[in-house]
Amino acid sequence: MGTSFSGAHAYVVAAMDRRVKTVLAQAPFVSGRAFYANLARVDNQIVGPDVFTADRRGLGTW
Q1: Domain boundaries, the chain
Q2: What InterPro entries does the annotation carry (predicted)?
Q3: Is 32 within 8 Å of 10 (Cβ atoms)?
Q4: Is residue 2 classed as helix, strand or coil in its secondary structure?
Q5: How far apart (Å, rounded) are the C-alpha atoms in residues 17 and 46?
Q6: CA separation (Å) from 42 to 5, 55, 58?
Q7: Residues 5-30: pLDDT tens digits?
Q8: Which 3 state secondary structure label does DSSP give 23?
Q9: Which residue of 3, 17, 30, 35 has the fewest C-beta atoms within 10 A of its own C-beta?
Q10: Sign of the alpha-carbon dihedral angle for 53, 55, 60, 62
């Protein structure tokens, strides 16, 4: 059982140790390379404070 990095470790241990019968991982961090490549994408970048202003104005409108 684990969250994030610990979740990934739980998967690895389960794959290597036959005594492990069940794995529970909450938001496992399983691919650092893919995760950081996704963070570096331009469409995932916050460009400026206008994004926060638009979000703040949108609050309470629903």
Answers
A1: 2-45
A2: AB_hydrolase_fold
A3: no
A4: strand
A5: 42
A6: 25, 19, 23
A7: 677 888 888 889 989 899 888 877 77
A8: coil
A9: 17
A10: positive
Task: Kindly state the tokens that stand for 35.
Answer: 């995760």
| Amino acid (1-letter code) at residue 41 | R
Q: Which two tokens stand for residue 22?
A: 């069940």
What is residue 20's three-state secondary structure? coil
Compute the CA torsion angle 11, 35, 33, 1 (nearest 10 deg).
Answer: -10
Amino acid (1-letter code) at residue 51:
V
SS3 3: strand
Place of tokens 């629903």: 62
- The model's pLDDT over 26-59, given as tens digits with 9 standing for 90+, comes to 877 777 777 777 766 666 666 667 777 777 777 7
